[in-house]
Design a protein that fits this description.
The chain is an alpha+beta fold. 21% of the residues lie in helices and 35% in strands. The chain has helices at residues 21-30, 38-43, 55-60, 74-77, 79-86; strands at 11-18, 97-106, 115-128, 131-141, 147-158.
């Protein structure tokens, strides 16, 4: 059954996420070529960018603190997309869902202690090649009201 385009414009959020230093460190290790767990990688961090884990390096940087890797934003920016695909009224068959694509427009670095608020809405629902497409855009701001990231998430739902 095709998705109903009447849900275009439906909003989700706000969702709040508090950024932790250890979460940034763990994420940095997870996306690095280093061995897990973090404690082992931290003992030999040659392959890990210091700005993602070392407070002294972060403080000495142009950012003035540790910052999160750009893709760390998935931790908070994806919440409205998840809520949309799980919305019982939209009726997405999650078992048939494929990740289509995602786009990020980064604005402000994410730092430990930031409180990020994310909202989102369904931008498009359309049909193509016997598949449904669900496009959700999300906007995340920090505790100062400054934009952190704008993201667009596309799901392809097979029928």
């Amino acid at each position: 059954m095709p998705l109903d385009p009447k849900f275009v414009g439906r909003s989700y959020g706000p969702f709040t996420y508090t950024v932790g230093l250890e979460k940034i460190r763990e994420f940095a290790v997870a996306i690095s070529p280093l061995p897990l767990p973090y404690d082992l990688a931290r003992q030999s961090p040659e392959g890990l960018r210091p700005i993602y884990h070392d407070e002294a390096a972060g403080k000495a940087s142009r950012h003035g603190s540790v910052i999160a890797p750009p893709t760390f934003c998935v931790n908070f920016a994806m919440a409205p997309f998840l809520r949309a695909v799980l919305d019982p009224e939209v009726k997405v068959d999650v078992a048939m869902l494929l990740h289509g694509e995602q786009e990020f427009d980064f604005h402000e670095p994410v730092r430990p202690g930031d409180v990020i608020t994310t909202t989102g809405k369904i931008d498009q629902i359309y049909e193509k090649a016997q598949k449904d497409f669900l496009v959700v855009s999300t906007d995340s701001k920090n505790q100062h009201g400054r934009p952190v990231v704008h993201a667009v998430w596309t799901a392809v739902i097979r029928r």
